[in-house]
Amino acid sequence: MVVKANLKHIRSLHRSKGRATHNQYIIEGRRLFQEALLTNEHLHLAYFTDTFQSNFPGLVKDVIKECPGAKNVSPAEMKTMSATETPSGILGVCFIPDNQVLDDKLNCNWLFLDSISEPGNMGTLLRTAAWFGINNISLSGNCVDIYNPKVVRSGMGAHFNITCILDANIKQFNATHAIIGADHKGTNLANHKIEAPWVLVLGNEAHGISKRTRENINHLIAIPRIGAGESLNVAVAGGILMEKLKAIN
Fold this sequence. Notes:
By secondary structure, this protein is α/β, with parallel strands linked by helices. It is 35% helix and 20% strand.
């Protein structure tokens, strides 16, 4: 049984204010827990239902070993804690890492996200960046919270494999990186000579890259359209460009 104070605490983590106050965020689901254990992510709290334990006894055993305070809860309690309509049966709380600084990452490639607003797009971009080994992310101050439960779920464990600078300014890269902006008015990547380290800038779903950020871009690139359609989803476009950039350096 979970005491009301704990339920209230976990419910507060559904909101950005609560996450900022406690410096914690929620993870849910088998795959996120598997990734957390694989990457040695510290689990502050963990809860699971009887049904989940029956279906995945090995995983629950590993979770209890990593987090001795893990508790069995009722389906009703899990539903109260969960940020989803249909809880998976396992939920945990992790600490938000301290905000990173650029100084020790000057030779790395970066992804700069400028006013990305949709949680699904944010999570997919983080997941894709981790897949391509782009483990350093900068986010402008008006991006969706990367620890929003929807972002965490769609990130599929990317949060355990990346470092982030929050409320970042693109100017911090001016002296050290080639700054590349994705925009439909840009030209084919093949027309640009780009050397690492670089920063790939992706802008807001509706409005693109902000004026303040655009003023610092060295290369404006686009994905040539071969068929039909007005534009690409930012997460799709980001994945294509990350693959192409990693292929050349």
